Amino acid sequence: MLAALIQHPFMSQQALAECNAQAMVDAMLAFELALAEVQEARGAVPEDASLAMRQTFEAHAFDLDAIAAGVASGGNAAIPFVKQGRAALPEDLKRYWHQGATSQDVVDTALMLLLKPRLAALDALLVRCRSAALDLMQAHDETVMVGRTLMQQALPITFGVKVAHWAIGLEQARRRLAVLELPVQFGGAVAVHSGLEGPGRDDLGLDFMDALAERLGLATAVLPWHTDRQPIHALATGLDAAAGATEKLALDVSLLTQTELGEVAEPAAPGMGESSSMPHKRNPVRCALIRGAARQVHGHTTVILNAAAQPLERGLGEWHAEWAPLLDSALLLEGALEQAAVLLEGLEVHPEAMQRNLAATGGGIMAEPVSRLLAPVVGQDAAKRISAEAAETARLTGRPYAQVLHEQLLAGHAEVAGRIERTDLERASDPALYLGSSKAQVRRATHWLNNQQATVS
Prior knowledge:
Blueprint (H helix, E strand, L loop, with lengths): L2 H4 L6 H6 L2 H21 L7 H10 L5 H11 L3 H11 L2 H4 L8 H37 L4 E6 L2 E7 H20 L25 H13 L13 H27 L7 E2 L19 H21 L12 H29 L1 E2 L1 H8 L8 H12 L1 H18 L3 H12 L9 H7 L9 H18 L2
Antiparallel strand pairs: 1-2, 3-4
Family: Belongs to the class-II fumarase/aspartase family.
Protein name: 3-carboxy-cis,cis-muconate cycloisomerase
GO molecular function: isomerase activity; lyase activity
């Protein structure tokens, strides 16, 4: 299949194995059998009818191809599934199959059941990423590197604080996913449990809905949510936020792996990153897979966002448009996080390259602190001009920035003599002494991340 070559490599292979047509049918069957059980427990289905149904389907194989073909005429997989299920049952049980339900109840609940283990897997992967990031933060809280703005060298930071920002973004996304609810769907034809009211009981349908949620291990909805798509909106945007945090990590790593920078490298593995024509290449393939997956998640999210407002009591195409983007987003994110966990756990960090790049401008990135040092002596405008000219001279001649500054000041500014020593210039132009709150940020982030580990399941 074409998808195996251009779509599935970006997804989690375990998730793909667990989210297939058979899994969807199993989830729809779980809904129907649970519905029969809760109705039987409340006297709406004869005693032992739900057990007889379960035993029938244990020996029954649904025709997946026929269900797939039936979607074209019914508009969703539940309609041909329900028909097949009813046909497989003995005559005395047929009337109790799918009682009070509609196709949207089946499909929405089945999707929630499919997504539940996926959210658990995403949480586990994000915890792996957090653990690996904490190790990197601790190991590199004093590893000085260039901070870059608008793709240009700016001022020094530490690699530890860079990792801390990745880790916080991922953990914030994890917390957002952790509180998402996967609600049961059960409302019947127009979401008011038509035909399920009994003498003095207009809440019987809601009672069934709540019991169904408990039996299936899903969240209890306030009301049926056939055209109230807030649960789907929250799921899609939560997945997208996690994809964005994962993509940020991959983007930064891929930029830092460039040959001219070489500050980090992806974990080495046989055949990983090879080129079809250039033997010397070691491409950041894990980053490419992460970013490719994340971009697809972003696209899927726009589909779901544009389907949030659905007409009257049943969506006309909007509901149908949600299914594939929602499941694909979960599978793509899981694939991206599998790569991200491996990336963080085995990331090769090259402090010597970071030091080399700090010196690439001859130390000119320290012009800002030098200007601050000079301003009280020569004035603000002259300080900026002197620090900039010295930075350019240092870059062109390859001499240390502090040395060039000292020579220029002695040559052209007699009023500086005795007021600014060369040691002052050296301190002002030392990147390791101009890190702001970098180390404190790593400590604070470490404390926050460890606190999440202790308090959030």
